[in-house]
Amino acid sequence: MIPDYGVRSLAEVLPGLLDGAFGLEPARAVALLLVDGLGAELLAAHAEFAPFLSSLSDAGPLTVGFPSSTAISLASIGTGLPPGGHGLLGTSLRLSDEVVMDTLRWTEHGTQGKVDLRESWVPETVQPAGTVFERAEAAGIAVHVVSQPAFEHSGLTRAVLRGGAFVGTHALGDLAGGMLAALSEPGRQLVYGYHADLDAMGHVYGPGSVPWQLQLAQVDRLVESLAALLPEDTLLAVTGDHGMVTMTDTVDADTHPDLRTGVAALSGEPRARHVHAEPGAAADVLSAWQEVLGDAAWTVSREQAVQEGWFGPVSSRYTDRIGDVVAAARGGFGVTRTKGEAFLSSLVGQHGSLTSAEQLVPLLVARSTSV
User: Given CB 3.0 to 4.6 Å as the disulfide criterion, which of 88, 104, 300, 329 pairs with 75?
Assistant: First the structure.
């Protein structure tokens, strides 16, 4: 499923909510609640645990972009650009011959010491495009970002969610309270809220597991509470940054000799791998990875992935961040790294690829009832 960039992807959400796209009437105050891991297919399959969410009007589904993972999706939401335009092209991202960065934590990927890269790889330089929040403020719209305190000065926030006032929250109660307080301020308002725990339950226990279902029920109550207390002339939208699948079959790129030969570095994640070849080895690496992965993945050259629009239009400054070979997993498959990514490789639930289970997210809409 090639993402529908420019029409129905996450990059269009915030500008569209402000301008009345997706068939929605504009409102004085607009809020977007991003529920990490809220896939459209998962929500439909477990609707009994989310009766309120399931009752809302759905202006989706939307495609999230490739890779279908949090850092990439947040960058598309925050900048209004597809991955090829904002340059965050993997959960782990190769920035140079020496540095592969964890884009969620803005640290050196795979190091025991978790080396902070915010000074050596300045977030505003790694991703220099202006954000939707910055543009909204310049247009006279007040902006609030309501999320966990640890994210306020993080590299990812600085790179793709900069602009506006940051409101730190600790639980569902103050997440809802912080969003409602911002929406209640006079004048035009844009409020962005983030909830992480559904994704965590999916990773640890599997999407659709009992803990995941019960967390979905909590998200349902959160949204119902928000919708019931919306101030006048307010629109609340709820979406996800990706869906999720249960990983049932793997190959270990750290131990399989054919997946190491000619490879200078690996980035991405188990469901969406960038394979960076040594000079002159790209063709041989592509052949080897296609042979080993077979029908378990779509395995193509960088040129083919770009031509087919996997990342949307790709800026020339970001081409080298894409692997010489790109592998997008099918079914429940994943390319793990048990040495370099031991914890990530152990997770039950995974995402990142081009399947509809990972790509499709809802765009659920509630409006204030007061006039």
Answer: 88
